[in-house]
Write a structure and sequence with these properties.
Keywords: Heme, Hydrogen peroxide, Iron, Metal-binding, Oxidoreductase, Peroxidase. One of its GO terms (molecular function) is metal ion binding. Pfam families: Catalase, Catalase-rel, Catalase_C. The protein is an alpha+beta fold and 741 residues long. Among the domains are: 257 residues, Catalase HpII,  Chain A, domain 1 (Beta Barrel); 70 residues, Catalase, four-helical domain (Hemocyanin, N-terminal domain), CATH 1.20.1370.20; 157 residues, 3-Layer(aba) Sandwich (Rossmann fold). The protein is 23% helix and 15% strand. The protein is built from 17 helices and 22 strands. Strands 2, 3, 4, 5, 6, 7, 8, 9, 12 and 13 form a 10-stranded antiparallel β-sheet that branches. A 6-stranded parallel β-sheet has the order 19-16-15-20-21-22, sandwiched between helices. Strand 4 and strand 5 form a beta hairpin. Helix 2 packs across helix 9, helix 3 packs antiparallel against helix 4 and helix 4 packs across helix 12. It starts with 5 loop residues before the first helix and ends in a 15-residue tail after the last helix. The N terminus is likely disordered.
Length: 741
């Protein structure tokens, strides 16, 4: 038996401290060497390749010295900024530190992706509206041009085996197989990012990933290292606030916005240029889970998002998004209304620059093989087509390095473009030869340019023959520096704008998210430091989170900004199509089943997905009047449904006794199956529309739900109840139940 730790035996420190020494609130400033390991930590024995003891101490294999260095031991004076030609760039190719740091980060995981490992993909088609032709010559944006696409949705932090519904940023990556080459729009469901410069990308991901000593917690940011980093690196405040909002836990991929994050440059056929930001707008509107739903789903159905995507495509309820752009003048300042367009931690409110639709994405087919398609698809922000160019955003510059490195490690060599899912849908003649996994059989003897032995082929194209030509943007004369422009220094105005733009229920959820996440941290100093960040965003937000943590609320360290709220940032108040909404219809098989059929048929006619919930699998009703059951009292939970209808009071099913289902151990109320009382109570707490007929009001009373409460649709029969319930669904939830207008 292992010897008990005497500190714990004597009521000593609670286990779970992330480091061996408690941190202080200020960032450490006095140089010191690496801290020793914790008492409970020990490495492998120091033996040679043949098993012979070396006699060396375990610390001889650890990193040493107080100074940050390159892998070759050269000391560094800055690791927050890429080397640029002046503060605004562009980033210089000679930045060996950026290259080394990002290259090593790209190769940390084998073989799954370092980030975005957990994903789901589908095939579809993009239809150009033709509305972008004045600013962009890209052929796939022309009117009525149809382009095949592959889309991959993902979470950022978790491994391939993590849950779908964790609080995290989501990837929204689209591969357009255009006639002019492959174009990849590699975005997220949040329009801003944690960092302004790609040289910091390894840092933010290292902070968000599980602690390296224990590999926990998985797929979440509710731990010390994440909050230690973002509380010290306050440019992360805006993205963090979005993640703590309902945007961090989408209802489904088909109800999730997508953003290109960066500012891109579009080039017209006449040579004119404009700066743009890309937006994906879901046709079903933006909708999110509440936190309890996300937690339940992590256990009930950790594959919820990918299952939802696969099921709706299989059912023919094809998800759709409009691609839109915000358009800005291409000025030397690359700014709009005082907002620096090269700062990826900033957005431009839609009230200042409306999103202009330029095309429609429809997902029409699931993958045949997850590995061959979703796992092997390789995106790269440098996969561009004529008409779309990059800007000097230093985060974008680093991504142009990073993605190719990633594919070389993950997909075994430089020929990843030859995998079926990655192959361009246009002729390729690249003069690239050999390498791992080369599947093309090249002919000719002269893979170089110029040549005469192969008749001069391949020839260089000109702009008039479809060549990709970079926009000749002037680069100002400047010194080589590792700095950021002054416009990057404001870290709190836009987070405050986001907070002020939220409805009251959304603010409640943000407060609860911060309180939960910081409450999972061990170190009080990390919590105190993050409260200081929140104080600079809003005193009410800070005070309420501080109250939940049992800590005093600090005063703001900077003057509070006074931005105009942006209503477009809120999810509350709109009305959206009900296509694909899931309606659970609960029946115990007694009563008039024709009413259940009528509700089911009405839901199908409205484009919804009705699921009959019965006492057991198979059917309910007599043989001549049998009705198929899709879910049972044992398997149904509120999180799967957008709305619920009850055909009377469902009597206890046969498995409600005997302890086979722990949920059935609840006290029975008014002759109802206790699991259906639980189901109704959950749905009510989550703001779902509820309804019923044939005495269903007694079930409401059993669950403690007033019949006159907001979002309750009772009727004399099933059809009347469904009609009333259907009118509530376009708003996603019954928001007034949370106290919102």
């Amino acid at each position: 038996m292992a010897e008990q730790n005497p500190a714990h035996a004597a009521g000593g420190p609670v286990p779970g401290r992330p480091g061996s020494v408690a941190p202080q609130v200020p960032e450490p400033s006095e140089p010191g060497g690496p801290l020793p390991p914790k008492p409970d930590q020990e490495g492998p024995e120091t033996v040679g390749p043949t098993g012979q003891p070396t006699g060396s101490g375990q610390d001889r294999r650890a990193q040493g010295g107080p100074w940050l260095t390159t892998a070759q031991g050269t000391r560094l004076y800055d690791t927050d900024h890429s080397l640029k030609a002046g503060p605004r760039g562009p980033v210089l190719l000679q930045d060996h530190h950026l290259r080394e740091k990002v290259m090593h980060f790209d190769h940390e995981r084998i073989p799954e992706r370092v980030v975005h490992a957990r994903g789901a993909g589908a095939h579809g088609v993009f239809l150009g509206y033709g509305t972008a032709t004045e600013i962009c010559k890209a052929g796939f944006l022309a009117k009525d041009v149809e382009t095949p696409v592959f889309v991959r949705f993902s979470t950022v932090l978790g491994s391939r085996g993590s849950a779908d519904t964790v609080r995290d940023t989501r990837g929204f990556a689209t591969k357009f197989y255009t006639d002019e080459g492959t174009f990849d729009l590699v975005g997220n469901n949040i329009p801003v990012f944690f960092i302004q410069d790609a040289v910091k990308f390894p840092d933010v991901i290292h902070a968000g990933k599980p602690h390296p000593d224990r590999e926990i917690p998985q797929a979440q940011s509710a731990h010390d290292t994440f909050w230690d980093f973002v509380s010290l690196h306050t440019e992360a405040a805006h993205h963090t606030l979005w993640n703590m909002s309902d945007r961090g836990i989408p209802r489904s991929y088909r109800m999730m916005e997508g953003f290109g994050v960066h500012t891109f440059r579009m080039v017209s056929a006449s040579g004119g240029t404009a700066l743009v930001k890309f937006h994906w707008k879901p046709k079903l509107g933006v909708h999110s889970l509440v936190w309890e739903e996300a937690q339940l789903l992590g256990g009930v159905d950790p594959d919820f998002h990918r299952r939802d995507l696969f099921d709706v495509i299989e059912a023919g309820a094809f998800p759709q998004w409009e691609l839109g752009v915000q358009v800005f003048p291409d000025t030397p300042e690359q700014a709009f209304e005082g907002i620096d367009l090269l700062d990826s931690t900033k957005l431009v409110p839609e009230e200042l620059s409306p999103v202009q639709p330029i095309g429609l994405l429809t997902l029409t087919a699931n993958t045949k093989n997850f590995f061959a398609e979703t796992e092997q698809v390789a995106f790269h922000v440098g996969h561009l087509v004529p008409g779309i160019d990059v800007t000097d955003d230093p985060l974008l510059a680093g991504r142009l390095f990073s993605y190719l490195d990633t594919q070389i490690t993950r997909l075994g060599g430089p020929n990843f473009a030859q995998l079926p899912i990655n192959r361009p849908h246009t002729a390729v003649n690249d003069m690239l030869r050999d390498g791992m996994h080369q599947t093309a059989v090249h002919t000719g003897v002269a893979p170089y340019h110029p040549n005469s032995l192969d008749g001069g082929c391949p020839f260089l194209a000109g702009a008039q023959t479809g060549a990709y030509v970079e926009t000749p943007v002037a680069v100002p004369a400047a010194s080589k520096v590792r700095e950021a422009p002054l416009s990057y220094a404001d870290h709190f105005t836009q987070p405050r704008q986001f907070w002020l733009s939220m409805s009251e229920p959304e603010r409640e959820h943000i407060v609860a998210a911060y309180t939960f996440e910081l409450g999972k941290c061990y170190e009080q100093t990390v919590k105190e430091r993050q409260l200081g960040v929140l104080a600079n965003i809003d005193p009410v937000l800070c005070a309420r989170v501080a109250e939940g943590l049992g800590l005093p609320a600090p005063e703001a360290a900077v003057p509070l900004a006074d931005p105009e709220p942006s209503p477009a940032l809120s999810q509350v108040g709109g009305a959206w199509p009900v296509d694909g909404r899931t309606v659970g219809i609960v029946t115990d098989g007694t009563g008039d089943l024709s009413q259940v059929r009528a509700v089911r048929d009405a839901a199908v006619a409205a484009g919804m997905l009705p699921l009959v919930i019965g006492p057991s699998g198979g059917t309910v009703g007599s043989d001549g009047d049998a009705l198929a059951v899709q879910r049972t009292f044992a398997t149904a939970r509120s999180v799967e449904y957008d709305a619920l209808l009850f055909a009377g009071v469902p009597a206890p099913a046969a498995d409600a006794a005997g302890g086979g289902d722990a949920k059935a151990a609840l006290p029975q109320a008014d002759g109802a199956d206790p699991r259906m009382v639980l189901l109704l109570g959950e749905a009510y707490r989550h703001g779902k529309a509820l309804g019923g007929w044939d005495g269903a009001v007694r079930l409401l009373e059993a669950a403690g739900v007033p019949a006159g409460a907001e979002g309750i649709a009772l009727g004399s029969d099933g059809t009347e109840a469904f009609d009333r319930l259907a009118r509530m669904l376009p708003g996603h939830r019954v928001w007034r139940r949370f106290g919102a207008d």
